[in-house]
């Protein structure tokens, strides 16, 4: 009787749980979905995971999973995790949403407050204008888009130019 032993050249198998490509919001919690590995011949030795995901830094992160069997055969799988700023900025009016000003009196812009989860020093665009010399209703639209192109988000203020001053009659004698 002759017993022939052949070398194990069959790689283990590895598959990833969850998504192979995932996108997370800036500062979100990353939870590793895990993997499943198996070797039907010599058995698994170990599985190494290289790479990391840092959700406090925007970027592209690759995680590489390598399964080793007891004879040194390997199999790899990888997961891509993209960390992005996905949140719109917020914008709110300072002062009132509707203002009445007397005709020919100056209009003082109260402005807006803008915040964002990631970007700073955002520019607010103002569409519309107020003609303080013409009676009417004027709508100002304030819009902002953050540095990662989230938005635009907008708010509006209505300015009514009114005439509430009674005429003065001056009788010359």
Helix and strand arrangement:
Layout: E1 13-16, E2 21-25, E3 35-38, E4 44-50, E5 59-69, E6 74-84, E7 90-93, E8 98-102, E9 112-115, E10 125-127, E11 136-144, E12 153-162
Parallel strand pairs: 2-6, 8-12
Antiparallel strand pairs: 1-3, 4-5, 5-6, 7-9, 10-11, 11-12
Structural account:
- 0% of the residues lie in helices and 45% in strands.
- The protein has no helices and 12 strands.
- The strands form 4 sheets. A 4-stranded mixed beta sheet has the order 2-6-5-4, with no helix packed on it. A 4-stranded mixed beta sheet has the order 8-12-11-10, with no helix packed on it.
- Strand 10 (125-127) and strand 11 (136-144) form a beta hairpin.
- The radius of gyration is 33 Å and the shape is rod-shaped.
- The model has no long low-confidence stretch (mean pLDDT 95).
How would you summarize this macromolecular structure in one to three sentences?
Helices cover 0% and strands 45% of the residues.
> Main β-sheet: number of strands, strand sense, barrel status?
4 strands, mixed
Tell me the structural class.
mainly beta
Write down the overall mean pLDDT.
95
Q: Order of SSEs, N→C?
A: EEEEEEEEEEEE
- Number of separate helices: 0
Task: Work out the strand percent.
Answer: 35-45%
- N- to C-terminal separation? 143 Å
Please give the order of strands in the largest beta sheet. Answer: 2-6-5-4
Indicate the percent of residues in helices: under 10%
* Unreliable parts: none
What general form does the structure show? Answer: rod-shaped
User: What's the total number of strands?
Assistant: 12
- If you compute it from the alpha carbons, what radius of gyration comes out, rounded to the nearest whole angstrom? 33 Å
């Amino acid at each position: 009787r002759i017993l022939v032993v052949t070398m194990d050249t069959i790689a283990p198998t590895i598959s990833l749980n969850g998504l192979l490509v995932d996108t997370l919001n800036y500062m979100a919690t990353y939870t590793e979905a895990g993997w499943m590995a198996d070797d039907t011949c010599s058995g698994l030795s170990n599985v190494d995971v290289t790479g990391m995901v840092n959700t406090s830094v925007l970027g592209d992160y690759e995680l590489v999973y390598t399964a080793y069997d007891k004879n040194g055969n390997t199999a790899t799988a990888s997961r891509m995790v993209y960390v992005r700023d996905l949140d719109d900025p917020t914008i709110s009016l300072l002062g009132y949403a509707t203002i009445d000003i007397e005709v020919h009196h100056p209009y003082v812009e109260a402005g807006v407050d803008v915040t964002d989860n990631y970007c700073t020093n955002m520019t607010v665009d103002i569409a519309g204008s107020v003609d303080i010399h013409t009676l009417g209703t004027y709508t100002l639209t304030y819009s902002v888009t953050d540095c990662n192109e989230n938005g635009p988000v907008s708010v509006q203020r209505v300015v009514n130019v009114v005439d509430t001053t009674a005429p003065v009659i001056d009788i010359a004698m």
